[in-house]
Amino acid sequence: MSEPEVTVVRKNSLRRYEEETLRGARLKREPILIWVTPDRGCVEYGGESEEKSQRYSALIHSHRMPPPSDIVKVAVEWPGANAQLIEIDQKKPLSSIIREVCDGWSLSGSEQFALRYADGAQLYITEQSRGEIKNGTILRLAISPARAARQLLDRIQSLSIDARLEALKELAKLSADPTFATEFINIEGINTLARLVESGTHFGEMLAFTLTAFLELMDHGIVSWDMISLSFIKQIAGHVTQPLVDVSILQRSLAVLESMVLNSCTLYHRIAQEIPITQLITHLQV
């Protein structure tokens, strides 16, 4: 008969449990120390020998109950603070979970905060998308999308060129998030971007990030492309027809024109009047 398999569990200072499988370990009649992790129940026995107690800081069966499907274990980050390791109960409202996270760092006004993914596209987590959170995911506590939209709308209209540029960089990235995009569009943010383009006062990086943010917001399909003004079309067309224009601006302008043509028959005819077909063919051949 094969020897039974025994799992040894040692509790370390980080409150984690290290498992190690031992074969051939016979359980003697004398009691030895057993520490069982909290989710398995906690039992202790006095050890007859210190050597055995150290060797077997815990002896438990290797069969474990699977975690409940509605519980997700994640880490939550906040700048300047130690990460919180929490269990998200998917049956609880997301607002309650955010409030508990804020309480962990003594932050007031939990309704002004939200959870985002810390990696990848860093999308906001909503009641509709929370089911996609997996065990081991790293999240980040952030200001709410409504608050972020309002702050960025104010910053992109700042008198400081540097502040405006940094805000447009951030906006270009956040605009790909449908949750943020909805909030930004609701406060007339996309109209503000359109006016910035129409003004003709933005150049270089600032214009490139403005066009990127505009295109990302429009791609969500929340606003119709038919809202585009003739003045906006003329500015975009000018970027394409100019003999010398920054390649990043040219690429974004062509992308905006493509989306106009694909999404609006009305705009197609307006664009055809502003840009000679030979000019477009020249860019397509590059």
Poorly predicted spans: 2-64
Q: State the major sheet.
A: 4 strands, mixed
Provide a count of the helices: 11
**What share of residues are in beta strands?**
5-15%
Q: Radius of gyration, rounded?
A: 29 Å
Strand order of the largest sheet: 5-4-7-6
| Beginning-to-end CA distance, first to last residue | 76 Å
Structural class assignment: alpha+beta
Our count of domains comes out at 3
SSE ordering: EEHEEEHEEHHHHHHHHH
What is the overall pLDDT average?
A: 80
What is the overall shape? Answer: elongated
Number of strands: 7
Set out the fold topology.
Layout: E1 5-11, E2 17-23, H1 50-55, E3 59-60, E4 71-77, E5 84-89, H2 94-104, E6 113-117, E7 138-143, H3 145-155, H4 161-174, H5 178-186, H6 189-199, H7 204-218, H8 230-241, H9 247-263, H10 265-274, H11 277-284
Parallel strand pairs: 4-7
Antiparallel strand pairs: 1-2, 1-3, 4-5, 6-7
